[in-house]
């Protein structure tokens, strides 16, 4: 077990990208070839590339990039990840491939195109597949950014868990980037999260309500959540391969072996600058909540899982336009009559909390687009402009791949005006 770090003293960031054909943008399951080229070893499941480490995921067309060790600040990580993306692009070029951002591929048929990771830990992935059938959008076609935040001891765990629980429902208001699946608009701006919420329906305790239960001590978490979860999966997992923290699929999960809580509801954005701008706003808001800047710890703990899950379900569909109850907005120091759009809360949080962070100039442009205009999902819909022919979708996602390569935000300008706020 690693030595526990105090609240907000370190940050672990993981971002997943799709590997696609350089010309057609079809998913290309060559993560093993990429990792072998990077590590200089066949069958490698990771490659340390300076401050950023590359790893495999469940499926062979996804590459994960993560900080090689916990970072003391988010500042500067956008540039490090951008360099890592450029390195991956150079290694993928001979394979006829490139990286594609966003939280899901808009044209992938996961039932036909899924290739599970075949090398080390392959038995683990096969076990997941045998239980849940991983050939679907909720398993094989979803990419996200994970934020790992440390806690030291029971009190810090409780305060961090309480803050994350109440902020989770509106995270898709900023982070949604998946409005299109199977070549058509899904009706959900965060279709990735909608599918993710149902990927473990066979064993409901694996996912719960996505929003974690109101548990604020380490022992109680093991007793109320993990122990029943391990008990429920045991008949389907005779070798005990899944008896670990990672089986827990809630929107935020404690990783007790490293004393962190991992946030998992954020769709991958169009470029590292946008991902880290998003991470910075989320972290700043959580810090404000933990410090009881707008609401008390007791007020945060009082919110029930069902109440929070109902708000989450709405932001998964409507992102920043979601209207939340005024009592919920009060948690963040936002007071207005009746219902309040989630985007208003985020704008207030960005203005009041973000200045306390080590600000990275790389965040400025994507923050302006993200907070003042709209989620990436709405910008994608604006660019497609009602034309869901494959050629149009490929053109728009080709532009998104260019944004990733150039570390630039996706701004559709005047064309997207009707889709904005």
From TrEMBL:
GO BP field: modified amino acid biosynthetic process
Gene3D superfamilies (UniProt xref): 3.30.590.20
Presence of keyword Lipid biosynthesis: no
Keywords: Ligase
GO molecular function: glutamate-cysteine ligase activity
One Pfam family, short name: GCS2
InterPro entries: GCL_type2/YbdK_subfam, GCS2, Gln_synth/guanido_kin_cat_dom
PANTHER family: GLUTAMATE--CYSTEINE LIGASE 2-RELATED
Protein's recorded name: Glutamate--cysteine ligase
Source organism (scientific name): Solidesulfovibrio aerotolerans
């Amino acid at each position: 077990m690693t030595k526990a770090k105090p609240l907000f003293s370190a940050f672990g960031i993981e971002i997943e990208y799709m590997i696609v054909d350089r010309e057609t943008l079809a998913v290309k399951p060559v993560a093993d070839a990429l990792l072998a080229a990077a590590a200089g070893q066949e069958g490698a499941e990771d490659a340390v590339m300076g401050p950023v480490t590359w790893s495999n995921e469940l499926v062979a067309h996804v590459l994960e990039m993560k900080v090689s060790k916990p970072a003391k600040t988010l500042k500067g990580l956008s540039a490090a990840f951008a360099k890592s993306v450029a390195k991956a692009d150079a290694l993928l070029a001979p394979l006829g491939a490139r990286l594609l951002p966003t939280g899901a591929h808009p044209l992938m048929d996961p039932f036909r195109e899924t290739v599970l990771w075949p090398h080390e830990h392959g038995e683990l992935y096969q076990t997941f597949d045998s239980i849940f059938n991983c050939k679907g959008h909720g398993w094989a076609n979803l990419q996200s950014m994970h934020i790992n935040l440390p806690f030291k001891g029971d009190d810090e765990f409780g305060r961090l868990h309480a803050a994350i629980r109440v902020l989770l429902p509106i995270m898709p208001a900023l982070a949604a980037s998946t409005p299109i699946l199977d070549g058509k608009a899904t009706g959900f701006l965060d279709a990735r999260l909608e599918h993710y919420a149902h990927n473990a329906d066979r064993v409901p305790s694996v996912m719960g309500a996505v929003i974690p239960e109101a548990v604020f001590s380490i022992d109680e978490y093991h007793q109320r959540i993990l122990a029943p979860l391990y008990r429920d999966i045991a008949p389907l997992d005779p070798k005990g391969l899944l008896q670990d923290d990672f089986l827990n699929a809630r929107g935020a999960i404690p990783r007790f072996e490293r004393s962190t809580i991992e946030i998992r509801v954020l769709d991958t954005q169009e470029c590292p600058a946008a991902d880290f701008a998003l991470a910075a706003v989320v972290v700043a808001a959580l810090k404000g909540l933990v410090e009881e800047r707008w609401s008390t710890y007791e007020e945060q703990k009082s919110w029930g899982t069902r109440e929070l899950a109902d708000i989450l379900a709405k932001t998964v569909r409507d992102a920043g336009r979601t209207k939340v109850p005024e009592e919920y907005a009060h948690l963040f120091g936002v007071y207005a009559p009746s219902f309040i759009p989630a985007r208003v809360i985020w704008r207030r949080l960005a203005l009041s909390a973000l200045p306390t962070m080590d600000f990275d100039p790389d965040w400025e442009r994507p923050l302006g687009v993200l907070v003042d205009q709209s989620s990436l999902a709405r910008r994608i819909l604006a660019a497609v402009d009602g034309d869901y022919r494959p050629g149009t979708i490929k053109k728009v996602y080709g532009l998104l791949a260019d944004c990733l390569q150039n570390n630039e935000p996706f701004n559709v300008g005047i064309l997207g005006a009707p889709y904005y706020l």
